[in-house]
Amino acid sequence: MNKQDSIISKRQKLHAVRVLRDRIFVVGFALAVIAGILGLAALLFDVLIDGLPFLNINFLTSYASRKAENSGILAPLAGTIWIVGMTALLTIPIGVGTAIYLEEFASKNRLNRLIELNIANLAGVPSVIYGLLGLAVFVQFLFNGSRNVTAGALTMTLLILPIVVIASQEAIKAVPSSYRDAAYAMGANRWQVVKAVVLPQALPGMMSGIILALSRAIGESAPILIISSLVWVTFIPTSPDSKFTVLPLQIFTWISQPQHSFRGIAAAAIIVLLIVLLSMNGIAIWIRSKYQSRPDQ
Amino acid sequence: MATTSEIQSNSDLLERVARRRRRQHVEQTVFAWLLRAAALISVLTTVGIVIILVAQSAGFFAEVSPWEFLTGTEWAPLFSPQKFGVLSLVGGTLLVAVIAGIVSLTLGLGAAIFLSEYAPERLRRVLKPILEVLAGIPTVVYGYFALTFITPILQNIFGHDQVIVFNALSAGLVMGLMIMPMVSTLSEDAMVAVPRSLRDAAYALGATRFEVSTKVVIPAALSGIVASFILGVSRAIGETMIVKIAAGATPNLTLNPLESIQAMTAYIVQVSLGETPQGSLEYKTIFAVGLLLFVMTLAMNIVGRWVISRFRQQYE
């Protein structure tokens, strides 16, 4: 009788220990999430506290200056718009075209599997390598040493192309095959099916992928640093062969200044950059959620 | 009985249909070729990267032996006598990447377990997008954060004389924070793929959630978790701006994370910002370093994806 009691109480103790360990580790795992969120919060606070005092209309409408308090982001803002605009014009047809080819036209042979594998590998190539590619091929070979907007946009296009292709492929895969079959049954050929059925259906998914890829292009600095290399740009690019700077590059330039006063305007420029990126992300998420829940599927 | 005009209009119609068919066929052929051309651009990109890196490095290796490059421990290409031991750059890169890997694996795996095994669906749907914001923040911003926020904290903890303004630890910690959502998402995907029945069996035996997580789910999802770690470290090796801004520009083969180092990527950027003449030996070094960087990240990405695909086969 006594023996049995002691076994039971031992079991209860063991059970209590196991439950306690369970509880402790819930807290531990939750702390990992909290650490991530706290890191994000600290980053945002750091930037806001340093940068908000410098953020005003003059900051948006003036050029970089030797004095921190007179400096603005007009040139990099214009440069960023140039780069994103040209990159979008180049990336969207090429990226969507590649995705359509791989999903709708290509037979599943060895060559096309190789293309897919190649795209997956390109997505993992460090951005600085794209900078070297752009420097050698576009700046030196194509434009004879001119570090212009077009070279920057071409480099960015190659950089985000894998992201656009993969996102577009996902969007195309999500179109039910019954839609295609219905169109084929009515005598449509492959291109007509793509044009009239697949593309309209896949468009929202593609759009959100493209917007996310473009926001990557806006935030990317390393390749532009290698392509542009310019430190002080005090003009708006007027044509595709203008020299240029972009927001992340200007931020980098200001961070690298020895005077601490430039950190404030770097933070102010970061705030502008983050606002642009977060609103683009917001739009992408909104598009996805708006079109994702179709009741008929 | 069909009249002549009816026959006439019928054959007109047939003719029109046939013409339209032909036009559609031409349109399809043209667009199929355009699409194929688009797909070729990504292949050309890879070919371009390999050719550029190899061709420019070939000029470098004509003057510096690959053996000296890969085994030397001193890197001073801009001074005389020039030294081309890339190990000090590789060491700096790996030091930061390992710190980032440890941070991102600890936080990412913890978060993945919490999100996939503990958090109710509604909480998960709030937390996950917040964590993913971390992945969308530009690296130059992380560099700023490391330099102006983390480094001063480290200096207060370890003492100003111990911690140099530009140090590997600060860059590594912040990079870990940046990669965390990627590790967390990939690990969580692997955990979600573990069949419900395995968990249920363990619960039926009286296991707690912690025991199910650590003794059933993690072992079953281990290859996915390992892959997420490999891909995360590969990402850290290729990252440029954080190490450029916060980790310094001193090639330094050290294990002390409080010292200043120079990463491979940071060296590439440093040279391209300077006035190094095209075609000079210094200029070619960035392509040699770039080639090594490309090979390292490519190998890790291939291994990482291979591990993931092997894992998927287990349960599908």
Sheet having the most strands of chain B: 2 strands, antiparallel
Task: Please report the distance between the alpha carbons of the first and last residues of chain B.
Answer: 65 Å
Oligomer: heterodimer
Number of domains of chain A: 2
Radius of gyration of chain B: 28 Å
CATH superfamily of the largest domain in chain B: MetI-like
Mean pLDDT rating of chain B:
90
Low-confidence stretches of chain A: none
Q: What's the helix-strand series of chain A?
A: HHHHHHHHHHH
Largest chain-chain contact? A-B, 87 and 87 residues
Helical stretch tally of chain B: 12
Would you identify the CATH architecture of the largest domain in chain A? Orthogonal Bundle
Run of helices and strands of chain B = HHEEHHHHHHHHHH
In percent, how much strand structure appears in the residues of chain A? under 5%
**Structural class of chain B, please?**
mainly alpha
CATH superfamily of the largest domain in chain A: MetI-like
Shape of chain B: flat
Number of strands of chain A: 0
Count of beta strands of chain B: 2
> Count of DSSP helices of chain A?
11
Note the gap between the termini of chain A.
64 Å
Topology:
The complex is a heterodimer of chains A (297) and B (316).
Chain A: H1 2-51, H2 57-61, H3 74-105, H4 110-123, H5 127-142, H6 149-173, H7 177-185, H8 190-219, H9 222-228, H10 247-255, H11 261-292
Helix pairs in contact in A: 1-11, 3-6, 3-8, 3-10, 4-6, 5-6, 5-9, 6-8, 6-9, 7-8, 8-11, 10-11
Chain B: H1 4-63, H2 66-71, E1 75-76, E2 83-84, H3 87-118, H4 121-136, H5 139-158, H6 168-192, H7 196-204, H8 209-220, H9 222-238, H10 241-247, H11 264-273, H12 281-315
Antiparallel strand pairs in B: 1-2
Helix pairs in contact in B: 1-12, 3-6, 3-9, 4-6, 5-6, 5-10, 6-9, 6-10, 7-8, 9-12, 10-11, 11-12
